[in-house]
Amino acid sequence: MFLHFKSILTLIFLLPFMFSSTGCAPMHFVNGPIIEDTVKREHWHHIIGVGLIELSEPFDVSYYCDNKEWEKVTVVVDLPNIMASVAAIYTPWSIHYECRSPIE
Fold first, then answer.
1. Which domain range does residue 20 map to?
2. DSSP secondary-structure letter at 65?
3. pLDDT digit string, tens, across residues 53-103
4. How far apart are CA 14 and CA 88, in angstroms?
5. How far, in Å, are 1, 4, 19, 23 from residue 76 at the CA level?
6. pTM of the predicted model as reported, rounded to 2 decimal places
7. Pairing relation of β-strands 27-30 and 53-54?
8. Residue 59 and residue 45: Cα distance in Å, rounded?
């Protein structure tokens, strides 16, 4: 009984570390100079089948920025994505993006 409880407890503590170690490094895309006055937003991109099948449409930053210029786009697998993922079957990504008024 004690051995079974100990193995379950070990699994509970090791599982988050195993998932976090499988994440990828963030990818940053920058468009021009960085300006402090931006609107920051987040969008989830849904992927299944070990990253081979995309359920979401390709991210159109011009559409989501409402005809403003995009300043920075970061694609990352962060903690909420790791917690929502199901092994390698479903793996969402977070897309953090910033929009700004056009630079003249």
1. 2-100
2. T
3. 899 999 999 899 987 899 999 999 888 888 888 777 888 899 999 998 887
4. 17
5. 41, 36, 14, 8
6. 0.71
7. unpaired
8. 8
The Cα–Cα gap between 2 and 8 comes to 10
Task: Number of helices (H) and strands (E) in the chain: give both, helices first.
Answer: 3, 6
List of residues 6+ apart from 1 with CB closer than 8 A: none
Specify the residue for token string 């170690």.
21
61, 38 contact by CB (below 8 A) = no
What is the average pLDDT value for the chain, to the nearest integer?
A: 82
* C-alpha dihedral, 82 to 84 to 89 to 92, nearest 10°: -70
Strands 39-45 and 27-30: unpaired
Q: Closest Cα to residue 73, out of 38, 102, 21?
A: 38
Provide the number of structural domains found in the chain: 1
d(CA 25, CA 2): 39
